[in-house]
Automatic annotation (TrEMBL):
Enzyme class (EC, first level): transferase
InterPro entries found in the cross-reference section: AAA_dom (IPR025669), Bact_polysacc_biosynth/exp (IPR050445), GNVR (IPR032807), P-loop_NTPase (IPR027417), Wzc-like_C (IPR005702)
Name of the protein: non-specific protein-tyrosine kinase
Reactions accelerated catalytically: L-tyrosyl-[protein] + ATP = O-phospho-L-tyrosyl-[protein] + ADP + H(+)
Organism: Polaribacter cellanae
Domain AAA as annotated: residue spans: 609-753
Domain Tyrosine-protein kinase G-rich: 454-533
Amino acid sequence: MSNQLKDTANQPNIDVKDYLYKVLAYWKLFLVTIVIGLIIAKFMNGYMQKIYSLNTVISVKEENNPLFSTGTNIAFNWGGASDELETVKVTLTSRTHNEIVVKRLQFYVEYLKEGRFRLADVYGYTPFKVALNVKKPQLYGKLISLEITGENTYKISTEFNESGNNKIITYNSNTIENYSTNSSYYSEEFNVKDSIKTNFLNFKIDKIGTFTIGEKYFIRFGNFDGTVKANKGISVNTVTKAASLLVLQKEGTNKNRIVDYLNTTVQVLDSIKQVQKIEYAVKTEAYIDTLFKEETIKLKEIEENLGNYRESNNIFDLSTEGSSFYEETIQLERDRKELQNYNDYLVGLRTYLRSNNSFNKDKLVPATIVLQDPKIVDLINKYVAKSAFREQMRKSVKDIHPEVKKITSELNIIKNNLLENISSLLRLNSNKLRKINVNLASYKSKLKRLPRKEQGLITFQRDYELSEANYNYLKQKKYEAGTAIAANVSDVKIVDTAKDLGEGPLYPKPSFNYMVALMLGIVFPLLYIIVRELLDSKIHTAEEIQNNYAIPVLGVVGRNSTKNNLAVFERPKSSVSESFRALRSNIQFLFKNTDQNKSKTLILTSSVSGEGKTMISINMATVFALSGKKTILVGLDLRKPKIYDDFDLSNDVGIVNYLINQKTLDEVKIATKIPNLDVILSGPIPPNPSELLLNDAADKMFTQLKKDYDYVIIDTPPVGLVSDALELFKYSDAVIYVIRQNYTEKGMMKMIDDKYKNKEVTNISYVLNDFSIKSKYGYGYGYGYGYGYGYGYGKYGYGYHENEVKEGFFSKLMNIFKLKK
């Protein structure tokens, strides 16, 4: 449990403040990406096609004239209350309906004007309107320039295809044909009073506004079917909590087009619904009119025959007995006629239902009678409504569509119910007819007892009475049908017309785009920083070393800008030199267990090559030597020697020669140009460097050097690559482990850190080399090691250090995006 707590305590904590400083360090990157994002948003707001959305609200509710009842069967309900809205929805989105709207508005004529980024649709904004001759051909798909040349004049011009083959379209028949011409260009001036009549253009310009001379427009004649397809995507939805209200919504780039299309589609719908609603009444009126004419002729014939019979037989009135018989028989005849009419209509309706699987208004015979059973009237209404709705749907979808299959099933149920009711009513009427015929037979036998002349008069009067009653009935029905047509009430009511009220575009939304640009301008740099942090495995600050490793940090050394590693000697007043003096002071803490009067040995090592270990070795030796201490620098990196090059020396003779007994110690020592500083180079690269360092000669050498010098500085190989340095630790009083900013991997020091924790290595400290305060990771590092050891005082160090070479503006700009190496 204690080990777990210890491990938890040793885990690095996330420093929110440190990460915040890192993010703020990229403020220039944020600024650039935000500015670029806003510029792109501004461009897109201007470049992207603006899409507008307008709507209209209508009410679709069955409206019948209260003067008529459904039982008259003159004003049939074509739609039904339950399916009215669905029928309207299908109608509004159907191809047939939208073809009517497009033809009425002539939307296949495009009105265009040169815009900033594209040709803009200026329908409704032009001072003219094209009046097409739809029976004549028009040049298809080509831009036709219309330039205003005067108060009432304009010039038409267009270019033909180079091949000479062009297309012309005739909208009345919706046909496209080829048109060949030898000319490549057409131009002609017209007056608004003139009609353009050519082989490829046939229209007139109607002036509806003020002409501005020099203003230029374009017109283009498009594809009829394509225009219908582009405009039939109107959205039709039911208003919530108002089942009889529909919202018609349309999107487009031109508000005037949207307004005209929505309002016109409602007008066309209203016209269609009115025609559908009175269609049965119109047919009934025509049917009744035919019967009425026939009955009129028949009534005149009977009236003439009755008059002739009276005159020729000199009998004008019936006897009392004859009148009584006449009244009784005429009522029976009327009842029989009415029942026969019922049965004839029911038989015709049954035949129609059995022989037809779909509704056909042309085959269904209108009823001229009031049906006995209101249930049959209701079923007929439902059957007609659903059948009409199904036929309307089948124009848009196939028979296997679930809605079509559902309605077909409902129609079969209604048909079966109708047939059952018709059969029951026919049986009932047949029984009534038999009774009436029996009564008529008994009265006819009684009539035979009257004189022959009176019997003939009764027959003629009966025929005249029945014909006159039928004539008056048909006359009434003809009047009702005509009145129903004239007094028809529309089912479609406009609640809210489509109108341009200055609405902004649905897309693009400038404020939204600017907000997105701002967010992306922040998110992209953040993602870049996060990804860089996740992929970054380098050491950047002394705090990282302190928080993750047990070995303490001795100090930091700034970036060396000199041409060689003799920074302290060649530029003693530089900030880098000051940082080495700070290290010289701090290293005394590592020597606290060493006799101050005795020689001190300092070993410098690192994880891998390239971390600046040799540079630190040379300059540490230099600061000790310049302080008046007799110092020697020993190059024990036998595999990759470097020291000789900085002192302009040859590496032909060195410590290797001494270790193999070729040279004495004095023979391999070399005095440098730096006072109090001698150097022993590594010499030729040996085949067995590790074995050389383990022999007795190495022990004798270090014993002698400690006697001769105050400080012995040893430059060793990297401990992460070879074990030579670890073998040399036994000669040291202190060890400096060099870490290079933005170069050393975070896990490289684990091995040496574990040895320190296990007390296998003591008196060791880290030095952060090549430190830059301008690093993205250095802003949180200040008043500790960096500032405390004389490096990076900024403006407060002015005059104390030599001025460093400053980066130019271009270099700084490039460094914003440059990954630190």
